[in-house]
Amino acid sequence: MGQIKLESVTKNFGPVEVIPPLDLTIEDGEFTVFVGPSGCGKSTLLRLIAGLEDITSGTIRIDGEDATDIPPAKRGLAMVFQSYALYPHMSVRKNIAFPMKMAGIPADEQKRRIDNAAAALNLTDYLDRRPGQLSGGQRQRVAIGRAIVREPAAFLFDEPLSNLDAALRVGMRLEISELHKRLATTMIYVTHDQVEAMTMADKIVVLQAGVIEQVGSPMELYRAPRNVFVAGFIGSPK
Ligand code: ADP
Ligand code: MG
Question: Which parts of the sequence belong to the ABC transporter domain (predicted)?
Answer without folding.
Answer: 4-234
